[in-house]
Amino acid sequence: MKNLIRFELIKLVKSKKNSLILGLFLLLLLLFAASNEVKERLDKINYAEQYKEKASYNSMIASGTKNEIIMNHGMLEEKVDTLTEAEKEEIRNYIEWLELSYEYYSKDAMFWTSMSVYVKEKNWDAFLYNCINEQKLSLFAIQDGVIELSDTDWSTIVELDNSIRKNEYLMEYGLIPDLSGNNMDSILFLYKSFKFLFPLVITTMISLLTIDMFSQEMDFGTYKFLLLQPFSRKKIYAAKLVSGYIYSTIATCLVYICSYILIRIGCGAGNINTIIEIPYISDTAHYISYLTDLEYTSALVDYEPIKERLIIIIYIVIVYHIFIVALSCLISSISQRITESISLLAGVLGVSLFFLYYIELPDFIMRAIPFSYSNVIEVINGKYGMNITWGNFVIVSVSFVLSFIGVKIFEHAEIAC
After folding, report:
1. 288 closest CA partner among 302, 298, 278, 303
2. pTM (2 decimals)?
3. What is the pLDDT of residues 1-43, one digit of tens each?
4. 328 closest CA partner among 240, 411, 412
5. Are 317 and 376 in contact (CB under 8 A)?
6. Where are the alpha helices (DSSP H) in 334-371?
């Protein structure tokens, strides 16, 4: 059995098709990182310009407010004898409000000016310090009635408070802010590539690596040599399944290690304590697409280091390999040609993803579909009432069922030797 597994592994390693797929996958990962890094650098330039514009706008308002303060003081002095006490009090209150407005806009302009400089210099400690002070200034100004919430970039007080807490966390742990969500240091690359490329890209790649394990034997006429070996068909199927899992897991890990090293050299190492944001809400599924984007949710947010979830994500991806390889081997075992295997795989993936993303299925059905666990971020955050233990149980159970069906089909297949 060991020799059979070794033999199948050698065939997979020597496959030119697999080498090409792995090369394309590595290229895709690097392009994913490079494109996001370019966006991040362009966004920082744009942010610097936006901060300058905000500073200029607030300076203009502060200047106009100062003139209005002087004008009202002059009017109060000129008409002191003709105004009633109530009118005088009204003017004094208005002048007091104008002075608070002037103080807010002049300070706010100073903060925005500083941030436009620090974002270009990548002086993140100073940037975060000014950012926190600007946001706290806005929060106090809203609470004091100096400005309206609509005058700021925030739609709710909760969002503003969340952002302050987030920036304080970043500053406390010396973390670089991910301003546009495109930062691609090596730690964030791992997290975001699993989040955005899994399941579609990684599932497709693993499937293509193992989809022809049986059909290629028929295509190349090597079935008769395989079946003449002193092994039962059950052992042959098991050997292919095990070798496919070992190869795809190791190959995927090696590609990620290579891309990680290259991105670490090009974009920096990052910090394992980089945070992710988790809403404090009972119905996490309702806000599942907003987990890392506070601009669209007013939910209270908790922060935790990315390392906690990255470990879980990698673990789930590795376990998910079992299901993908089992599905690929089953499809390959019932196909006569490689092209048939690929076509059938494309159909299965397409239909499954269509039902997953476009058809609203009951939760109890979703909990029984392994593709529901293909977005590991959703699994971790409890979408459809799932959890990691339940997800692993379903994935492994369905994988064994698929393997059992595949073995039975292969055992009873009539193949001319």
Report:
1. 278
2. 0.75
3. 788 888 888 888 888 888 999 999 999 999 989 998 888 888 8
4. 240
5. yes
6. 338-358, 363-366
